[in-house]
């Protein structure tokens, strides 16, 4: 008899995707805070406003996470007129997502072969 593990595999894929997206967003936040050519914040408020706003979650057939700057209206000016902290970080970090997904998927597959494994969440 064939035992179907479809729902478990889908759940494992969803967990892998959320973890990978969260990792890449965290790296993008760090990159944006440390790399913003063209401007320097005297108070540090602009850098402090850059954060993960919503950890990755599965919504339908998509996995979505949100990061960026919140609460600093002049961040738009800094981003588009003085230097590209957010878009520069996205350009630098987003290409790492496929490798991060593969690495996390391999780990999840190996971990699921251990007796008693029930997943991280």
In short:
With 121 residues, the protein is an alpha+beta fold. The chain has 5 helices and 2 strands; from the N terminus they run ααββααα.
Key phrases:
about 120 residues; elongated; 5 helices; alpha+beta; two-stranded antiparallel sheet
User: How many strand units?
Assistant: 2
What assembly state would you assign to the polypeptide chains in this entry? single chain
Structural class: alpha+beta
Shape: elongated
Question: How many structural domains?
Answer: 1
Largest sheet: 2 strands, antiparallel
Report the order of strands and helices. Answer: HHEEHHH
Fraction of residues in β-strands = 5-15%
Low-pLDDT segments, ≥5 res? none
Kindly provide the radius of gyration, computed on alpha-carbon positions and rounded to a whole number of angstroms.
Answer: 18 Å
Average pLDDT = 90
Spatial separation of the terminal alpha carbons: 29 Å
Number of helices: 5
Helix content: 40-55%
Strand order of the largest sheet: 1-2
């Amino acid at each position: 008899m064939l035992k179907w593990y479809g729902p478990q595999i889908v759940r494992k894929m969803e967990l892998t995707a959320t973890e990978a997206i969260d990792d890449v967003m965290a790296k993008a936040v760090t990159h944006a805070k440390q790399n913003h050519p063209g401007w320097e914040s005297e108070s540090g408020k602009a850098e402090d406003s850059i954060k993960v706003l919503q950890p990755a979650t599965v919504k339908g057939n998509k996995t979505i996470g949100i990061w960026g700057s919140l609460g600093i209206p002049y961040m738009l000016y800094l981003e588009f007129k003085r230097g590209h902290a957010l878009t520069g970080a996205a350009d630098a970090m987003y290409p790492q997502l496929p490798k991060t997904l593969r690495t996390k998927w391999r780990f999840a597959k190996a971990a699921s072969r251990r007796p008693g494994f029930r997943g991280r969440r």
